[in-house]
Design a protein that fits this description.
Blueprint: H1 2-27, H2 37-64, H3 68-79, H4 90-105, H5 110-178, H6 182-267, H7 394-402, E1 405-410, E2 429-433, E3 442-447, E4 450-455, E5 459-461
Antiparallel strand pairs: 1-2, 1-5, 2-3, 3-4
């Protein structure tokens, strides 16, 4: 107990003498022992390194996580030694939003499919960003934090001990100056020698520590900086590759869309719907029954004969065949004397009845009121790559006969009109199968887990 009291009294006396010496130095009433210039430079360099390292570390944390609330939350979890919850980043959230919108608008449509592709690319960017953040935190921020919280604290502790040794040395020098008696002077000289040796020993320890740490820290921090640059290079290279692939996919969507628009403009469709071309060969049809103008042909509607003098039982003014003869109502001219009061197509070339129907004549310009690709063989005429309705190519005929399965490339976008049909996207490849009993103009298409009827005219079978 006596030993502890004496030790406490000695420590209190030492602290008091240090405080007095420090106060006198501040007031300029006492001399101060200066450190070696080399040691001073080492201490200043270590302090500057600590300040710069702390600034770089904090700014890197801001780069990796701009949200200060999230940074504070991660700091608390780190101090509590708990795992922080995993949350999706902004790019991943954007990707999920795009994918959901694409599925809602329809993956079979160009815009919906493009949204899905963009969403997948954004999620890839988010995954790359997550890897970049984790790698940077491990390879760059963690070593810098270890230096600030570990090595630099050791340097600060040794520097504080050196500062105390210097105060003790200067206090001993002051007491030696004030000593008048021989015994007091001898004791002061002994205390001064002890303080000087302790100060020199601590200065050497601090110098060696600073020299070792400065060389080690520069090498270590340079390696961490190289790791950060490598991580950033990998991250931005991945992002660039993802965006190049996405740009190519969007470019293909745009080219398909422009090609479809060009085909529609070339077809000159008045109803906005492109239909298969009709052949002018004998007996060829396009699936729509229309009246023939050949002698004796009918259009499926029973009408009175237009022979000379024939009537339909209704008394009407006779249509004179003389030039300028009229009945007050403008009607197309029929055969001599034939009247039924109903306007019908004249058998004369180029005559019309107000309803556009296809003429059996091969003369250019005959129309049926529905815009279709021209079958003209004049120079410069454009023929769309569509199959003739009701006719099948040899490959389709073989598929019908064998009831087999083939791959087919989609020529144009097609939107299903009922649940039994399958929507198509231009340039995609699907599997088609001929089903017995199905209309010859349709095949059973399959894409992934979706299946439905698809029109032959929108497909190109692949060998």
């Amino acid at each position: 107990m006596d030993f502890n009291v004496r030790r406490l009294a000695a420590d209190a006396g030492t602290l008091l003498s240090r405080a007095v010496q420090y106060t006198e130095e501040v007031l300029g009433q006492a001399e101060r022992t200066e450190l070696d210039s080399h040691l001073e430079n080492l201490l200043d360099r270590a302090e500057a390194t600590q300040q710069c390292t702390e600034k770089i570390m904090k700014q890197t944390e801001v780069l990796l996580q701009p949200n200060p609330n999230v940074r504070m939350e991660e700091f608390l979890y780190e101090k509590l030694e708990k795992m922080a919850p995993v949350r999706p980043n902004n790019l991943e959230l954007l990707g999920e939003c795009m994918i959901d919108a694409g599925h809602e608008l329809g993956p079979g449509r160009a815009y919906g499919n493009a949204l899905i592709k963009c969403g997948e690319a954004e999620k890839q960017l988010g995954s790359a960003e997550r890897e970049f953040v984790q790698s940077s935190a491990i390879n760059f921020i963690a070593p810098l934090r270890n230096f600030i919280e570990g090595d630099y604290k050791t340097i600060v502790a040794e520097r504080k001990i050196l500062q105390n040794m210097r105060l003790d040395l200067d206090a001993a020098k002051t007491r030696l100056k004030k000593a008048k008696e021989a015994d007091a002077r001898s004791a002061a000289e002994t205390e001064l020698r002890i303080s000087q040796s302790e100060f020199d020993r601590q200065a050497e320890i601090t110098r060696l520590l600073l020299e070792g740490h400065n060389s080690t820290h520069e090498t270590q921090h340079l390696r961490c900086l190289t790791d950060l640059v490598d991580t950033q290079t990998t991250y931005y290279a991945q992002c660039h590759q993802y965006m190049v692939n996405m740009e190519k996919q969007l470019g293909s969507f745009s080219s398909v869309y422009c090609a479809n628009n060009n085909q529609l403009s070339l077809a000159g469709a008045s109803d906005g719907i492109s239909r298969p071309s009709t052949s002018t060969a004998s007996g060829a049809t396009d699936g729509i029954s229309r009246p023939s103008t050949a002698p004796g042909a009918t259009d499926g509607i029973s009408r009175p004969s237009t022979a000379s003098g024939a009537t339909d039982g209704i008394s009407r003014p006779s249509t004179s065949t003389e030039p300028g003869a009229t009945d007050g109502i403008s009607r197309p001219s029929t055969a001599s004397g034939a009247t039924d009061g109903i306007s019908r197509p004249s058998t004369a070339p180029g005559a019309t009845d107000g309803i556009s129907r296809p003429s059996s004549s091969t003369a250019p310009g005959a129309t049926d009121g529905i815009s279709r690709p021209s079958t003209s063989t004049e120079p410069g005429a454009t023929v769309l790559p569509l199959h003739t309705a009701g006719q099948s190519s040899p490959s389709v005929n073989e598929l019908h006969l064998s009831n087999g399965t083939r791959k087919a490339r989609v020529l144009y976008d097609y939107s299903a009109t009922c649940n039994s049909e399958l929507s198509l996207l231009a340039d995609e490849v699907i599997t088609v199968t001929s089903v017995p009993g199905m209309d010859s103009d349709w095949l059973m298409g399959e894409r992934g887990d979706k299946k439905g009827k698809v029109p032959i005219t929108y497909l190109q079978l692949q060998s």
